[in-house]
Amino acid sequence: MVEFVVAVLPVFLASVVECVEAWTVVVAVGLTRGWRAPLLGVAAAATIIGILLAVFGVTLVDRIDEQVFELVIGTLLVLFGLRWMRKAALRSIGVLAHNDEDADFRRTVAELEASGRGRGPFDWLGFSIATKTMLLEGLEITFLVLTLGASGDASYPAAVTGAAAAFVVVGVAGLAARGPLSRVPQNTMKMFVAVMLATFGGFWVAEGLGVDWAGGAWALLYLFAFWTAFVLVLVAVGRSRFEPVAAEASPVSTALGEPPGVGDST
To answer: Coil, strand, or helix at residue 262?
Structure first.
């Protein structure tokens, strides 16, 4: 049960955040240029991600040495968690702008309408934008599934389940709403996931180095409390020193190959 929770909860929450950002572009393409090409793009990206998970996931679960897992994967989780924690904290402080899915959606639609429709029976631009967007967001999900899923026999299917559930939930919600899912508290979810990743990663790194945690697995609770206090203090101090910035650029800019702005996604 512990393995299941460790794997499925952070993967599900992180996947929701990534999928919301991706579906903003997919829905905009579908409403602007038709649904066939972007949905095929989503299917293509999901297939590629599924192949990566099938190939590398089996290798990690079946062949990785436990001490190597704890040191290497734990370190990667800490670094990844700190990266997300930094960006979430900067958005809470106001140094980076929060994702504005409504504004992103409107800009995406405007840019797609300005690009015009290509000639031919198939919309390759819509297909490529949807595929690239889903792959870019999906690679981070893949990393989390592989790392958290390698922690035990029950963890890998749990991590895959969490990612798949998020993909289905967000996809159905996005298609039903026919617009951006702007009410999802992305930054709060990202902050929570970042704290969880730093907690699990730090725990495994220390165990890989031979540290005997007081209380065993209960040490996860005071590690979680430590990282939570750390980020709350960071945000409180930062808010007293920085001025907030404007809303960030549309995610379609990245999908179309344009340089990102100050509020880079993720």
So the answer is: coil
Q: Is pLDDT above 90 for 160?
A: no
- CA dist 251 and 27 (Å) reads 12
CA distance 22 to 135: 9
Q: Residues 255, 258, 260, CA angle at the centre, nearest 5°?
A: 90
Q: Averaged over 195-214, what is the pLDDT?
A: 86
Distance CA 110, CA 32 (A): 9
Structure tokens at 229: 């206090």
69: DSSP letter = I
Tokens 């409180």 found at: 236
The closest alpha carbon to 26, from 120, 100, 137, belongs to: 137
User: pLDDT tens, 179-203?
Assistant: 667 677 778 888 888 998 899 889 8
| Cβ(262)–Cβ(95) below 8 Å | no
55-77 pLDDT, tens digit each: 777 666 566 666 777 788 889 88
